[in-house]
Specification:
By secondary structure, this protein is of the alpha/beta class. Helix content is 42%, strand content 18%. The protein is built from eleven helices and ten strands. Strands 6-2-1-7-8-10-9 form a seven-stranded mixed sheet. Helix 11 links the parallel strand 7 and strand 8. The chain starts with a helix and ends in a 10-residue tail after the last strand. The N terminus is likely disordered. Bound molecules: S-adenosylmethionine. The site of S-adenosylmethionine has 21 residues, from helix 7.
Length: 290
């Protein structure tokens, strides 16, 4: 009963039990932990996989995954959304330029973590922003995702030309000072991002559900990732970010995500709440005695 109640349904429907067992099987067999992702999101994605594959039930899918490791990349892809764009939400990048870069500028070196990087669109956007502020040379961008396929794509930094029109419009809307075309070379039907942007990036796999703190960061960007997690996992990840940040370090979330309901909220202050830009307080509030 408790299972289903935690997700707002009244009865432990067989499907929810099957879904839980599927997640447990994936975790035990492969170490990928989706057990604290939002159940509504998972249910939708698994139902889509069933419709595409013709498997009769979630239990059937579970059997196939356990006995056919080649299905794992497909399932990783299914269970996490990796839609992204360069300069997604231009007003966010404007706020970064106006409120965050002038403070980062005062540091001799700058460490930035892009957690949940998809195919790297956000990291290349940040590198361009830093380049235009003459900060790229002293910056290191740690670019991570739990999905190895996405980390490889981020490292390649190649995007279909069909996406470039949107990326260019976004870049212009941020008030970028150059021509966006200066940052890529066209090869066939792809745009390849300039090597000097990638040179400042370090790519690695990192799973927010199971891995640890990532180092002394000045800025953590994790946008449009927490929305797929339940409250417990969101709290774990926000705790991880709090520990990964230097005092005074910045945290950026997606437009539908907020710190407000997290137990870690007191550690941060809002810099631009509308854009979900927060800063770790230099002096932490005293813990209340029990
Ligand atoms: C919707 S995309 C957001 C991409 C980018 N941050 C943006 O806002 O455009 C969500 C990303 O989170 C990644 N992700 C999902 N679960 C994760 C986890 N447990 N650890 C690390 N990354 C995860 C997905 O692989 C995907 O790349």
């Amino acid at each position: 009963m408790a299972l289903a109640m935690t997700h707002g349904t009244h009865l432990p429907q067989p499907e929810i039990i099957e879904l839980r067992l599927l997640l447990e099987a994936i975790y035990q067999a492969y170490g990928y932990d989706f057990r604290n992702y939002s159940l509504a999101h998972l249910k939708r994605r698994v139902e889509q996989r069933l419709a595409l594959s013709g498997f009769a039930s979630i239990s059937h899918l579970q059997h196939e995954i356990l006995h056919n490791p080649e299905l794992l990349p497909v399932i990783l892809q299914d269970l996490s959304i990796n839609v992204s764009e360069m300069f997604r939400d231009p007003s966010f990048y404007q706020a970064l330029r106006a409120e965050v870069l002038p403070i980062l500028e005062t540091y001799p070196s700058i460490r930035i973590w892009h957690a949940g990087c998809a195919a790297g669109q956000e990291a290349y956007s940040m590198a361009i922003l830093l380049h235009e502020a003459e900060l790229l040379e002293r910056s290191t961008l740690f670019v991570t995702d739990f999905n190895p396929r996405l980390v490889a794509l981020a490292q390649e930094g190649r995007y279909p030309l069909s996406a470039i029109k949107k990326y260019t419009a976004n870049y212009q809307a941020t008030g970028g000072s150059n021509s966006f075309a200066e940052y890529y070379t066209v090869r066939g039907n792809h745009a390849e991002m300039a090597a000097f942007l990638r040179d400042r990036m370090v790519f690695s796999e990192h799973n927010l559900a199971t891995d640890g703190v990532f180092g002394e960061m000045h800025l953590v960007v994790c946008r449009n990732v927490l929305i797929y997690f339940d409250a417990q996992l969101q709290n774990r990840v926000l705790g991880l970010f709090a520990e990964s940040l230097c005092p005074g370090g910045f945290l950026c979330l997606g437009s539908k995500e907020t710190l407000r309901f997290s137990k870690h909220a007191p550690i941060f202050e809002a810099v631009v709440e509308r854009e979900r830009i927060y800063r770790k307080r230099r002096h932490q509030p005293l813990e209340e005695s029990p």
